[in-house]
Amino acid sequence: MADKTLTLKNNGNGKSTELRLISGTEGPDVMDISSLYREMGIFTYDPVFVATASCHSSITYIDGDEGILRYRGYPIEQLARSSNFLEVAYLLLYGELPSESQFNEFQEIIRYHTMIKETLKSFFDGFHYDAHPMGIMVGVVGSLSAFYHDSLDIHNPRHREISAHRMIAKMPTIAAASYKHNIGEPFMYPRNDLDYCGNFLHMMFATPCEDYEPDPIAVKAMNLLFILHADHEQNASNSTVRLSGSSQANPFACIAAGIASLWGPAHGGANEAVLNMLQEIGDVSQIDKYIAKAKDKDDSFRLMGFGHRVYKNFDPRATIIREVCHEVLEKLADSNNPMFELARRLEEVALEDDYFVERKLYPNVDFYSGIIYRALGIRNNMFTVMFAIARTVGWVAHWMEMMSDPEQRIGRPRQIYTGAGERDYVPFSKR
Ligand code: CMC
Asked: Structure pTM?
């Protein structure tokens, strides 16, 4: 088939050029503008990347208009129903579902790396007791760069793989330690007889004084939430990891950058913000007041957990979580939980309101995830940390994909300069 092209003409000077159209497996065609400056002397402008593809990727596919999310071709609904987080991690990293023996081997490798260096534990003491756990995560994960010199050659694929395993394995340990630091309890060592999520719950809730066995319902819910949060193509934190990694920075520093980006309330910080918002609203009688605030352009209040840059239909992850939310609350907490009732009513009211309908603002994944985490006994300030544990798999998969991409070079956006034109320096005495 002949290459698809698009002709671009500058009406100002009559110059024109042919631009190649690239087709992916699915999704809209993409105009290749890499020759544009050379051919036409102009840049393109797309300040927050609403219409710009930054790379080729075969990891995750999203169709925001249809509400579709697939990891390596597998619909998120099927993975959520039938898989577990570590299997999904394998899929995202290696591109295929593992055989049983490949899965067992992968699980063993991840278990082998769950501990952190004893000296790393002393890092936590440098943080004030009330430090936000995401702040601790940014610092401690970044500091891993200083520990693993045996496998930090980013040009060596085997080193990259070892770093990936280390990050996936150690993230729950560091996350749980940040929580224990917050509440003033001793850190718990990992238990490698447990699975990934069970071990995380153990490190969070066990103490040296009492036995603790993770509740299977909690383990199942956590696997599900981690699967739903594992990847989401070129979102802000994945793009941050890729841009950081494009300079050939070490992977631990890149993931720390990803964690920092995730923290913001417009991104992963939304799950914490949703619970804080529900607490602030407090009662169904206050819903109208807060809906009015969200619509008021002079008020900075937004309905947290609503809206998405890509999903303009519904967020398929929110649909799955909403169903599970009922089940978890029924089994683990009070099914008449007022927070859940408040969330349900808020959703109902917003979905019928013209402002939200016209702008296609639907509940996103974070609208319900915090409620489930609360039912599992996890504090509000740990919600985004939970997201970070799961998304580490996506960050690492994207970093690995980028590092083996022959097109990979340092990322370097351009700008529209709007500052002063050339002018001469004036000494103090003449200013
Ligand atoms: N509440 C009230 N108005 C909203 C909201 C909201 N949550 N989200 C968007 N709008 C309005 C916005 O004011 C704008 O209105 P207008 O056209 O009149 O100026 C219009 O909808 C389009 O919004 P936008 O800010 O241009 O959209 P965006 O694509 O830049 O932002 C978003 C996407 C997710 C940052 C935004 O919807 C938002 O801030 N939502 C709340 C935070 C949130 O839940 N974030 C989690 C995202 S899902 C988890 C993840 O993947 O990270």
From this structure: 0.94
